Amino acid sequence: MMSWKRFILYALLFVVAAGMLYPLFWMLLLSVREIPEQYSSLWELLVAPFTASNYTDALASDAFGRYFLNSVMVAAVVTAGNIVFCTMAAYALARRKFPGGKAVTGSVLAVLMIPPHVIMIPLYRLMVEFGWINTYAALIVPWLITPFGIFLVRQYLLSLPADMEQAARIDGAGEWTILFRIVFPLCKPILMVLAIYTFLGNWNTFLFPFLFTNDEMHRTLPVGLAFYLGKQSIDWGHLMAGASISALPVLMLFSLFQKHIIEGLTAGALKE
Question: Which of 2, 81, 194, 249 is a Cys-bridge partner for 144, taking CB atoms 3.0 to 4.6 Å apart?
Fold first, then answer.
């Protein structure tokens, strides 16, 4: 028989899960109703006729397809850059001793405490000076390496013994060979976590793509969805349909790599 403590735990978990799933349910419900704002009660909305026109309209839009491809391209390139550059920087900080190394590590931790909104204006002025406004470079280059990625991989490397790297040096392997043949395979669990975290973060980001782009050619999906918000009204049906399509890759990634995320986050803690 289930104990009362376990029952309370399951009840709390159910309440938390319901609270997290409710916005998703509400989004899906509005996306399959034609002009959902015309219904005055939740019951009317629940029994209203089903329609897929909001989805077909969104997918048929040339701009929506462009936004989607831009988001995929930007998130994929930024993710690849973070995997390579964050690992290289983390390897140097974790394994190599050089003058000012502790100061560099401290600066990485300090940058983690700075909200990204603080650099909004300086970064925008920098993009203007480079002539990168309305270019993919503005959406990609500033995020190719992040302090969080450096810190995450560095902490994982510190939990691993350096025996294999030392053995490779004795055999005559160079630093680049050690990095790509030994360090990268050993860091695969945490790199999987970094890749998923970076991809999802860039997929959902809105502020900086909104600042750095003002044409349809370079807008990402979150920025494109914002144009369903008018000054006098909101096109809730098409907005929720677009948001549902935007959320689909996120849900798929989490469902496919949930095991890898948990293993990567706990692997370092299990090392002695």
Answer: 81
| Residue 229 near residue 43 (C-beta atoms within 8 A) | no
Task: Calculate ∠ Cα 250-201-221, nearest 5°.
Answer: 65
pTM of the model: 0.84
The DSSP 8-state label assigned to residue 230 in this structure reads: -
Tokens representing 45 are 């909305």
Superfamily in which the 61-270 domain is placed by CATH: MetI-like (1.10.3720.10)
Calpha distance 36→52 (Å, rounded) = 13
Tokens representing 77 are: 């390139």
Q: Is the separation of the CB atoms in 139 and 213 below 8 Å? A: yes
Token pair recorded at residue 253: 């990634």
Distances (CA, A) of 207 to 58, 87, 202, 217: 22, 27, 11, 17
Report the 3 state secondary structure along 27-69. HHHHHCCCCHHHCCCHHHHHHCCCCCHHHHHHHHCHHHHHHHH
CA distance 15 to 257: 25
Dihedral (Cα; 144, 200, 183, 189), 10-degree rounding: 170
Please give the structure tokens belonging to residue 65.
């397809």
Residues 203, 249 contacting (CB under 8 angstroms)? yes
For 35-58, write each residue's pLDDT tens digit.
Answer: 887 877 878 888 888 888 888 888
Domain limits of the chain? 61-270
Closest Cα to residue 91, out of 193, 190, 197, 184? 184
Residues in the chain predicted with pLDDT less than 50, given as ranges, are 269-272
Q: Give me the sign of the Cα torsion angle 57, 62, 63, 66.
A: positive
Per-residue pLDDT at 115: 86
